[in-house]
Amino acid sequence: MLFDHHSIARIRDAIRKDPYAANSFELLKKDILSVDYTFVQEKHKLLLELNHRAADEEKAYYERTALTRELSELSVNASFLYLLEPDSSLLPIVKGLISAVCSADSWSNLGPNFKVWKSDLTTADIGVHIAIALENIKAQMPEEYIQEVTSTLLHNSFYPLYEEWLSPENHVNALDTMGHNWWNVCISGMGVVLLTAGKSRVPQFDSCLDQIMDSLREWMNYPGNTLQNKKANFGSDGDYIEYVGYFMYAFSNYCIFNEMLKKDDRLDALDFSESEEKTADFYSSFFHRLWDGPRLADFGDISLQVEKHSQYIFYLCGKFNKSWTQENFKQLNARLALPYEFYFYNPDIASSGWLPPREKIFHDSGYAIIRSGFTADDTSFMMKTGESWNHNHDDAGTFELACRGQLFITDSGNCSYGDPNYVQYYIKPQAHNVIHFNGGQEPDDIRYHGTKYMGNFPAFLSTETYKYLLADCAGPFINQFQRYYRHVIFIKDMIVMIDDLFTYEEGNLHYNLHVNGKVELDANLAVLTSHGVQLEIHSLFPRNKEWQLQSGYAHEIKNGGSAAPVQPEVEYLQISTPTEKRREKFIHCFKLPSGSASEVRVTADEGEWAKEVVIEREDGTERIICNMRADGRVMHQNSSLTYKNIETDAFIIYIKSSHDGKILQVAQHNGSLLKIDGICYISSMLKNDSLLNLEDGSITVHNTSDASCYFKTSPDNQAQPGKFKLKAGTSTLKI
C-alpha cells in the first residue's frame, strides 16, 4: 500500500510545519468538501448518458473520457483526504466517485473511430487513480465491493494495456513506434493496477510483473530506431529526448509503481539510480533566474504553468538532495495537486549547496546552456538544435537570453494541441528565434516522420573571459538550407552571433527575434527595455536589410477551471534580406545590461571577403572578423584571407588589444593559421578552435584529433612559436 501509516504520518507532519504543503492541502480539502453526494449522483447519471451516445457521437466520446478522468482524480483526492482526516461522511463520496468512474464503458481517449488499439495514457492514468483510491478505503469496504472495483480495474485498464502493449502474442505497440513518454506512462500505470489487484486475482501475476519490469528496463535503455527516425530516449548525460515537460509526465506513474515495489518485501524494485540522478541534473539545467521568479526555457511542447504530475521532480529532489531544484520548481508548481505529489514532497531537504553546471552541452538531445551564475542578476543563454520526434517544432537554433532579471529574448512555446494555432503558428519557424527561407514552410511529413539529421553543437570553447559555441542547425532545415551554422561568441558584456547560411536557390531570408519589453528601432540598432533594464541589439550585417515588427503569439496562458486559455498577441522582430549567390551572413551583437557606466561603441567594417565587428571600450578594442572565403565556397584549396593587418584561413578570428595596440588575446575558429602584422600567433596543420590569452599566459584549444599546435609564447616577435603536442578534445595550457 502506497499510503501506509508511516507515509500518512510523514505527510501530516509536512502539512503541519511547511507552508507550501499546508496551503496545498487546504486547497485540495476545499475542492473535495465542495463535492456532495448529489454532485456525485449527477455526474454518474451523466456518464451513463454519455455511454449511450459515445458510440455514435465523437463529441460525447471525448466528453465521457474527460469526465471519467476528472472523477478519477476527485476519487483519489477524496480518499487521500479521508486518510489524513478520517471522516465517515467522506466514504460515500469516495465510493460513489469510484463507482461512477467504473460505470464508464471505456477509459480510453483514442476516439470511437480509432481502430488500431483502444488503450492509451488515459487508460493508465485513470487506472492508477482508481487503484490508489481503492487501496486508501479498502479497509472500510465490503469484500464484494472490492471485488467489483478490482474486476473493473482489470477489465478497463490492465487487460487492455497488457494485450496491446505487452502480450507476446497480441501486442500492437512497440518501443520503436510509440511516443517516448507513452511507454513508461502506460506500462508503469499497468504495473500499479497489477500490484493493487494482487496475485489472487491475476493468475499470471508473476509473469506479467516480470514482463513489466523487463519492458521498463528496455525503455530506459532504448537506443533509437534508424528506420523510424527515432532517437534514444536518453542521452549519455541523462538528457531526455522530449525535453523537460514530457520528462516530468513520462515518469509520473513510474515513481508510484516503483515505490509500491519497494514497500513489498516479496518483490524486487527497479534501480535506475545512476540514470535518475543524471536526469535530475538535466531537468535542473533549464531554469532562468529572473526577478519575478524562475522560469524554464520555453522550448517545444512544455507547460510553463505546472498543474499536476509533478511527483517525479519531487522524487528526484528528495532522493538526490537537489534542494536548489526543488526551491525553483515550487515557484513554478503553485500547489501539490495530487496525493502522489504530497507523498514524494520532502520539505526537509537540507541545503547541500549543489548547483547544476554553469555550462553544459547536451550533445545527444541538442541543448546548450551557458550562464554566468545563478542569481537573478546573472546572464543565462540557452539554445536548442535537437529534435523531439513526435513533438517537433521548426526550431533548430532557437535560443533564449536572460540578463539582470529580465528574459529579453524568449521563444513562443506552444498552445493546446487541438487549437488551430498550434499547427498554423506555434510549430512554425516564425514562432521561434531562427532564420527561415522564403515562406519557411517545412513539409508536414518532416515533423510527423521525425528528423533524420539532427542539429548539434560540434564545437565549444570556454574560458573565464571568452567563450565560443558552434551550432549546426542545417539538419532539421535540410529542405531550406545546405548550410545553417550559428557561431556564438561571449565576451564580457557582449554576445556576438554570426549566422552562416547557404540556400538551394535565390530567395529571401527572415531572421526572427521574439522579445520581451518595449522595442525602439533606429537604423541598425534595436533597444529592448524591460522594467527599466535595457538590452541593445546591433544588427551589423547584412547591410541591405529591412526591419519589421510582425504579429505573433506568446506562450498560451491557462486560466484554470472552465475559463478558456489565452494566447497573448505580441509583436516580434523580423529582419529580412535577399540572398546573394544563395549565401548570406547575419551578424548581430547583443549588448548586455552590465550596470557599468563605461562607454562601449559597436561598429562594423568590411572588405571584399571579410566582415568585421569592432567593439571599442575605454581600455581597448576587440575585433571579430568573419572570413567569407572559409564558408565552404572555396573547396580543394585553403581559404586564405589577407585583410588589413591580418592573415588567416580561419572562418572567425578574435583580437583583443589595449589602447596602445598591444595584443592581449587572440582566437581562431576553424583555422590553422593566424598572423597579425606578419607575426605568427597560432599555427597548426589541423584546423581547430583556440584562444591564446597573453594577459594570463594561458592557451585553450579544442582539437578534433591528436595534433601538434604552435603558439606565440614569447614577447620577442622574432622568436619561433612554441610547439605543443595536444590530444583530441579540449586542452588548457599555461605558457
From TrEMBL:
Source organism, top-level taxon: Bacteria
Keyword Lyase set for record: yes
Location of the protein in the cell: Periplasm
InterPro entries: Chondroitin_lyas (IPR008929), Hepar_II_III_C (IPR012480)
Gene3D superfamilies hit by this protein: 2.70.98.70, Chondroitin AC/alginate lyase
Start and end residues of each Heparinase II/III-like C-terminal domain: 359-551
Main location: periplasm
Keywords noted in UniProt: Lyase, Periplasm, Signal
Keyword Cell inner membrane part of the UniProt annotation: no
Protein name: Heparinase II/III-family protein
Upper lineage: Bacteria, Bacillati, Bacillota, Bacilli, Bacillales
